[in-house]
Structures are given as structure tokens and as C-alpha cells.
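Appendix C reproduces, verbatim, an entry submitted by the partner laboratory led by Prof. M.T., so that reviewers can inspect both the input and the predicted structure.
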Amino acid sequence: MWLELQDVVRHFGSRQAVNGLSLRLAQGSIGCLLGPSGCGKTTALRAIAGFEPVDAGTIRAHGRVLSQPGFTESPEKRRIGMVFQDYALFPHLTVRDNVSFGLHRRPASEQRKRADDMLVAVGLSEYSNRYPHQLSGGQQQRVALARALAPEPELVLLDEPFSSLDVELRERLSADVRRVLKNLNATALLVTHDQQEAFAVADLIGVMRDGRLEQWDSPYELYHRPVTRFVADFVGQGVFIRGEVVGPGTVRTEVGVVRASGNGHWVNGRAVDLLLRPDDVIHDDASELKAEVCQRAFRGAEFLYTLKMPSGTQLLSLVPSHHNHSIGERIGIRIEPDHVVAFDR
């Protein structure tokens, strides 16, 4: 296990920025700390980098202690590369010189070769003699990544690396960054508040709330098997509908009897809230179950319909865009959940 955090605590006065954070990240894996502003993810990243001490707990790399109360190994000794939110490129240096900046102890010929190799890896070899102001935001981001990777760090940390980019560029670059990191078998941890960014880059994602880690899991598990209601609300889209347990893993709702996995004790009569994702609600003209279209969002291949049941309960449904229904129209639906999670009401 390359990186391990065990019960890490960091507080500022009476405020617990990080509260009992534990996680493990294997060599060659990409992890992500995901959560809203103020949840503690950036403080955790800074503690891993060595910019913040810990007040309790331990941070280890390959079993070696990096931080514990009373001891913080200096950042330059940690063999950690950092990609900052604003890229922090040197405006007076060329792209090649920016990338080779951390290689000053190596011979000049080796510095140049390593920098050129990294620029090839991020697809910017033809820009080596340009200056940062001559590059787009996405190109600057890739230069910052190349610079972080050039000294062959054991871990790369990325702090909100795409936050200053537009949505289309962010999606494209997140895939590029994952490809580069995987090609180099780099171990990496990023922090972001954007779940699509986290899903596109990371193998494992930790959802944080108020300094605590709610769930550390794969993107698939976070989406389909959230272990807390906060994770269910924060990750993906979905709605909660009321239900009543009528058997082991079986819940009766106004949209029918649903087999459910997950949280809570399956005591008959227990009131629960059931999480339904948009892909659980299928448009079916032949179904007797009807719902009224009250909103729709065109997404190219699909519509995201907001549907209202006779009771007033609202559902979300992804429907192929050739099913073009008007606001106020009643359409047939059926519920086909692969994973439905219930939480005690």
C-alpha cells in the first residue's frame, strides 16, 4: 500500500477541518477526495504534501511515517509532485524550462531529455520553446502536470486542477490526465468538488463532509451503492420516494413493489426512503403506470424528464431523445432498478 492515512485530525482553533480521516491508496492508483467547499479535502491534501502538520493520526508512504503529532517531514523530502489550482508556472521561463525546473541537480543533458520526454507524454512537444502566456488554459494545465511528473515523484497531488477551465475543456483534459498518469503508472490523489471530474479521473473516490470521510469506494459503488444518505444526495442525480418494508429487501411504494439492497434493518412495516436514479425509471408506452412530464432537459441523445406522479411525487427519467414529449403530457413508465438503496426515513 503506497499511501495510508490513519485517523488523521487537523484543526484550526475550535474548527475540525479534518476529523478522523482514514484511507489507503495502492501504487499506480488514482484517488480523489470529493466534496463541497469547506469539507476538509484541501486541508487533507496539504497535510499529505507536508504543508500542514497533523494534530492526531498518522500519514505513511510505503510504511514510512510522513506525518504524526510532533513530526512533519519537510515537503521536499517526500518525493511528492504537486499540481496547483492556478498552475503556478513561471512566466519568464519557456515550457521546457518550466518542466525541467525541479531537475536542477541533474546534468543539463539529462534535464533536457527528461523534460522533452514529459512534454511528449502530455502531447506538447511542439510547444517546448513557447512561454506560458502563449498557451491556452488547457495547455498550461498539461505543462503543470508534466513539471510535477518530471522529477519522478512517488505521488502526484492535484488541487482542483480543472477548476479554471470551461466545461468542455475540463471533460477532455480530465481524460487526458488520467491517460498520462496511467501510462506512467503514477500514483495520484486529486481534490475536487466536481463529481464528473472525479468520475472521469479516479479509480477510488472519497466523499467528504464536515472533515469526515463518508465513503471511500469506486465511482460505480458510490453511484449505485451509497452507504449514507449524504453520499446518495451528493453523487449523481436521483430522488427519494417513500416506501414501506414488506419483506427482506422488499419495499412497497406508490410506483410498485421494489426489491432493494442496502441500509437499514428489513423489519416489516418500517418506513423507508428509496433512492431512484434517472436510469431506474424507464419510459414504456404500454405501462399502466402514468406520470406527467413537468420539466425536460435536452441532452442530445437523451431527454432528462422530470415526471410528476398523481400524488405529487416527482421522479427523474432518462429517455432516448426520439421520444419527444411535451410539458403536461402523461407518459407510461415502469421501474427497473438494478440497485435501489433504502434509508430509514
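The first strand starts at residue 3 and ends at 12. Additional entries are available on request from the coordinating office.
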